[in-house]
Design goal:
Bound molecules: adenosine-5'-diphosphate, ligand TZD, magnesium ion
Strand content: 15-25%
Distance between the termini: 56 Å
Number of helices: 22
Low-confidence stretches: 1-9
Mean pLDDT: 95
Largest sheet: 6 strands, parallel
Radius of gyration: 25 Å
Strand order of the largest sheet: 3-2-4-5-7-6
Length: 578
C-alpha cells in the first residue's frame, strides 16, 4: 500500500546518512535491549530489519497481543523493560492490551508503535491507519510519549526505559511518527545523540524510622507471617527474602508468581495453610505484594485485629484497603537490607507453638491433597487431577523448567499441585486473571532466559493465543505446550437454557485434536489419555528441547464454573431458570 500523504525521505546514502529507523535501532542497542518482540508492516518493517542488523533478536509474532505478552514476561523475568513493536492503528491497539496488562501487573515494558503522519490525523482527514494513538494509550499505561523528529528518538527511548523501571514498574508507550522514522540525518550527528544514560534503575532507600518501626513490629509479633508477592520476584531479592525468613524463623506464604522465591517445600512454607495465616496471624509483612482482590483486599477471613507491615516502592499503595501500621517505602533490595540490619539486635517474640502448629496443619492438608491426586490416577477419562499427578512428577524433577499457566480449573489446580523450587519460574495470568497470555509469555520466558518452558493451558485459554504456537516453532524454542482439553470454558457439559441446537456458551470441543495444530508447524506432538502416557510424553518433550504440543484428553465433566473463584460471579437477582 502507498501512503500518498507520507512524503518519504530519500533512501539514505549509508554510511554517511541514516534514517530515524537506524537511530531507533542504535538507541535500543545502546541502552542494552537484547530482544524486541513485534509484528511488522507500515511503517516499521525496515526498522525491524535494522534492529536485527544491530544484533538485537527480533521475534516476529502472528498477533501483537502475544508479542506484548512476551515483552511483558521478558520484563518480569529480567527486571529490565521488554520491548514490543507494533504498526499503527489496529496493530497498536492489539499490542496495547498487553501493555495495559503489564501496567496492571507492574511488569516493566515499552510498546513502541509507528504512527501515521500527524497532520491528517489531527484534522481527521482519513489518512492510512490514522489514529490518535498517544491519547488512546495514555489512560492505560504508566507513561506515554511521542517522538516527532529523528533527533529526539534516543531521548524518547531513554525516557521510556526510565519510566518503565523507575518507581513501580509498568508499561510505557512510545509513539514514533512515520516522518520521524523516515527522517534522514548525518551518520555522525546521529551517533553523537547516543549518550550512555547513568544509573538507569536507581536505588530508592527507605527512611530509617520507617525501617525501625517495621522491625520493631515484626519482632513484637506472636504469630507473624511474611507474604511474598511477585514484586519481590521481579526485584530479584530471593537471597534477602531467604535470609529474612531463615534468620527470623517467620513462616512465609508466596503469592502465585512468587512461588519458588523460597522452595514451596521449605519447612517454613505456609502454602497449604493460607486460611490459618489470614485468620490467626497478628502481624503480616507484605513484601512486594498488594492487598488486592487476590488477598480479599484485607477483609473476609483476615484477622481484623491483625497489623500489616508493607514493603513497596509505591507510597500510593499504602492504606489502599487496610490500615498499614508500618509502611516501608523503597526498592525491595534496599528495604530488605535495611530491615535485616535493624532486626539484628532484636529478639523475636514469636510464640514457640506458632510454626509447629502450622507445620502440623500443613502435614494433614498435604496428605489429603496427595490422596486426592493418587485417587485421580485411575479416573478414565482423566480429570484435571489425574493429569496434574503426572505433570507434578515431571515438573518437580525438572525444577529449572519455567511453568506458564492459564485457564480456570487448569490454572487453580496446577498452581496448587506443582511445587516450585526456583524464583521467577511460574508465570500466569496474574492480577487481571486474563486469558491470552500463554504463547506470548512462553516465548518471552524462553527467549529472555534461554531456559525450557512448559505451558499448561486450559483448552479455552489456549484458543486465545494458539496461533502463536507457530512462532515457537519458527524460532525453534524449547517450549512444550500442554492443552488440558475438557471441551470448554470451565468444562464441556454446559446445557443451553433456551431451546437451541447451538452449543452452550461455555462449550468448546472435547474431541478437538489440538496436537494436530502442532503437526502443521512441524512440532513434536502427542495425544495422551492416561497419566502414564502424559508423564512419558512430557518428560520426552522437555528432554528434546524442541517445540512440542501435547493434547491432554480430559473428561468433559472435569472442572467447575470459574475454578476457585466462582464466588465472584454476580449473585442472581432473579432466578433465570423459572
Ligand atoms: P502479587 O499479585 O504477587 O501479590 P502484586 O503485583 O499485587 O503482587 O504486587 C507487586 C507489588 O510490588 C506492587 O505494589 C509494586 O509496586 C511492588 N514492587 C514491584 N517492584 C518493586 C521493587 N523493585 N521494590 C519494591 N516494590 C516493588
Ligand atoms: N476473556 C479474557 C480475556 N479473560 C478472561 N479471564 C475471560 C475471558 C473469562 N475466562 C476466565 O476467567 S477463565 C476462562 C475464561 C474464558 C477459560 C477457562 O477455561 P479453560 O480452563 O478451558 O481455559 P478449564 O480448565 O476448562 O477451567
Ligand atoms: Mg477447559
Amino acid at each position: 500500500m502507498t501512503d500518498t500523504t507520507n512524503n518519504n525521505a530519500a533512501a539514505p546514502n549509508f554510511p554517511e546518512q541514516v534514517t530515524g529507523m537506524y537511530i531507533l535501532a542504535r538507541a535500543l542497542k545502546n541502552i542494552g535491549i537484547e530482544n524486541v518482540y513485534g509484528l511488522v508492516g507500515i511503517p516499521i518493517t525496515e526498522a525491524a530489519y535494522i534492529i536485527q542488523g544491530q544484533g538485537i533478536r527480533f521475534v516476529g509474532f502472528r498477533h501483537e497481543q502475544q508479542a506484548g505478552m512476551a515483552a511483558a514476561t521478558d520484563g518480569f523475568v529480567t527486571g529490565k523493560p521488554g520491548v514490543l513493536m507494533t504498526v499503527s492503528s489496529l496493530g497498536f491497539l492489539n499490542g496495547l492490551t498487553a501493555t495495559a496488562n503489564a501496567t496492571v501487573n507492574c511488569y516493566p515494558m515499552i510498546q513502541i508503535s509507528g504512527s501515521s503522519v500527524r497532520e491528517p490525523i489531527d484534522l481527521e482527514q482519513g489518512t492510512y491507519e490514522g489514529l490518535d494513538q498517544l491519547n488512546i494509550a495514555k489512560p492505560l499505561v504508566k507513561a506515554a510519549y511521542r517522538v516527532n523528529r529523528a533527533e529526539d528518538i534516543p531521548t524518547g527511548v531513554v525516557r521510556a526505559y526510565r519510566a518503565a523501571v523507575s518507581g513501580r514498574p509498568g508499561g510505557v508507550y512510545l509513539d514514533i511518527t512515520t516522518p520521524a522514522l523516515g527522517q534522514v540525518m548525518d551518520h555522525a550527528a546521529a551517533e553523537a545523540l547516543l549518550q550512555q544514560p547513568v544509573d538507569l534503575q536507581p536505588s530508592m532507600v527507605p527512611a530509617a524510622e520507617a525501617v525501625e518501626r517495621a522491625a520493631a513490629l515484626l519482632a513484637s509479633a506472636k504469630k507473624p507471617a511474611i507474604l511474598i508477592g511477585k514484586g519481590a520476584a521481579q526485584a530479584h531479592v530471593e537471597d534477602l527474602v531467604k535470609k529474612l525468613v531463615e534468620t527470623t524463623g517467620v513462616p512465609f506464604y508466596p503469592m502465585s508468581m512468587a512461588k519458588g522465591m523460597l522452595p514451596d517445600k521449605h519447612p517454613l512454607s505456609a502454602l497449604s495453610v493460607r486460611s490459618t495465616i489470614m485468620e490467626e496471624a497478628d502481624v503480616v509483612m507484605l513484601v512486594g505484594a498488594r492487598l488486592n482482590w487476590l488477598l480479599s483486599r484485607g477483609h473476609g477471613k483476615w484477622n481484623q485485629q491483625g497489623q500489616f507491615i508493607q514493603l513497596d516502592i509505591d507510597p500510593v499503595e499504602i492504606d489502599s484497603n487496610r490500615h498499614i501500621a508500618a509502611p516501608v517505602i523503597g526498592d525491595l533490595r534496599s528495604s530488605l537490607e535495611a530491615l535485616l540490619t535493624a532486626l539484628e539486635g532484636k529478639k523475636m517474640a514469636m510464640d514457640a507453638g506458632w510454626v509447629p502448629s502450622l507445620q502440623a496443619q500443613s502435614r494433614v492438608k498435604n496428605a489429603k491433597f496427595a490422596q486426592r491426586l493418587a485417587d485421580a490416577v485411575t479416573a478414565s477419562p482423566m480429570n484435571h487431577w489425574s493429569a496434574l499427578s503426572a505433570a507434578k512428577k515431571v515438573m518437580e524433577a525438572n525444577p529449572d523448567v519455567i511453568l506458564v499457566n492459564e485457564g480456570a480449573n487448569t490454572l487453580d489446580d496446577t498452581r496448587d499441585t506443582i511445587d516450585m523450587a526456583m524464583p521467577r519460574h511460574r508465570i500466569d495470568c496474574a492480577t487481571w486473571a486474563i486469558m491470552g497470555m500463554g504463547m506470548g509469555s512462553a516465548i518471552g520466558a524462553a527467549v529472555a532466559t534461554g531456559k525450557s518452558v512448559v505451558a499448561i493451558e486450559g483448552d479455552s485459554a489456549f484458543g486465545f493465543s494458539g496461533m502463536d504456537f507457530s512462532t515457537i516453532c519458527r524460532y525453534k524454542l524449547p517450549v512444550t505446550v500442554c492443552v488440558f482439553n475438557n471441551g470448554g470454558i470451565y468444562n464441556g457439559i454446559g446445557e443451553p437454557l433456551d431451546k437451541t441446537s447451538d452449543p452452550a456458551p461455555t462449550t468448546l470441543d472435547v474431541h478437538a485434536r489440538y496436537d494436530r495444530l502442532g503437526d502443521a508447524f512441524g512440532a513434536k506432538t502427542y495425544y495422551v489419555t492416561t497419566p502414564a502416557e502424559y508423564e512419558a510424553a512430557l518428560a520426552e518433550a522437555i528432554a528434546s528441547k524442541v517445540p512440542a504440543l501435547i493434547d491432554v484428553q480430559l473428561a468433559a465433566d472435569s472442572g467447575k464454573e470459574s475454578g476457585h473463584i466462582g464466588y465472584l460471579n454476580p449473585a442472581p437477582l432473579i432466578d433465570i431458570t423459572v
